[in-house]
Amino acid sequence: MAFGTQDDTDEVMNEINMTPLVDVMLVLLIIFIITVPVMKHAVDIDLPQASSQQQQDRPQTIRLSIDAQGQYFWNERRVDDAALPGLLAAAAARMPQPDLRIHGDRNVRYERVAQVLSAAQQAGVRKIGFITEPKGP
Which domains, and CATH codes, for the chain? Predict the structure, then answer.
């Protein structure tokens, strides 16, 4: 073996090996062929148009309080048990429907709160919330 001479097999390649590039491109082509039909199978629906303006009419909030004796107060006004279903039905018929916030005394019987919930459900009131106070330190 002679030093300083170069064999024909040690020649520098001047060409880029295209086989890995073609393999990668074929894999990407197969992925696109598979995924494009999946993306085209969406349900065609006609969506409504909406404006970006703020809604001006906010629903009214009704405060229904129940004191320790079980008496009902509709926005700070005393209400009889017989008049409560009528008031709830009238509130449920308004558009937009008002929010019903129930303020129950901690000493009131649960039966009185359950009666309000039942009457509100029968009247068709959909937005009912309970108001509590956070515990002190």
Answer: 61-130 (3.30.420.270)
